[in-house]
Specification:
The chain is α+β, with helices and mostly antiparallel strands. Strand 3 and strand 4 form a beta hairpin. It has six helices and four strands, in the order αβαβαααββα. The protein is globular, with a radius of gyration of 15 Å. The longest helix is centred in the N-terminal third of the chain and has 15 residues. The protein has a single domain, classed as Glutaredoxin.
Length: 157
């Protein structure tokens, strides 16, 4: 079931990425924020929070949030995701961003043991769709209220 939901989100993200609203188009929603979700099939945080996170973020796709999945399951999916992020001009934001404080968050989630710092799954990076500036980065494990507050505040800015 979670694979089906993940496939649906990937399809939605690729179909909706780059849509722009014009005064004559009432059905298209202007992308204001891009949510890049680092996930992996082996990630305990992703497994535990996937469905809840998806239920919280999917309603925002009609409000200007586009979801892009960064699959970090294995080398093949990592390379494919990196290529897709490069094509979307989001690679630098996800792979080159100084993630100050994220290491502690990952350690508390049990994803990093201090030796392997490349395991940054279960994280969503919010990027401004126009400037491609990183606006926020958080764990998908935050509470529903915290995630809603983060996204609502980003959409208001």
């Amino acid at each position: 079931m979670s694979k089906l939901i993940s496939a649906f989100i990937m399809a939605v993200s690729f179909l909706s990425y780059g849509q722009q609203t014009t005064s004559n188009q009432s059905t298209a929603v202007e992308t204001k924020i891009i949510a890049v979700v680092n996930k992996a099939s082996w990630c305990s945080v992703c497994k535990a929070n996937s469905e809840r996170f998806q239920n919280n973020i999917l309603p925002y796709t009609t409000k200007g949030v586009t979801i892009v999945m960064n699959d970090m399951t294995d080398e093949k999916s990592i390379e494919q995701s990196k290529e897709n992020l490069k094509k979307s001009s989001l690679y630098k934001q996800v792979y080159k961003t100084n993630r100050k404080g994220v290491g502690r968050m990952l350690q508390s989630c049990g994803l990093v043991d201090g030796k392997n710092k490349s395991m940054e799954t279960g994280i969503v990076t919010f990027v401004d769709a126009k400037t491609l500036k990183v606006l926020n980065e958080t764990s998908i494990a935050v509470t529903d209220a915290e995630m809603k507050t983060i996204i609502d505040n980003l959409l208001k800015a």
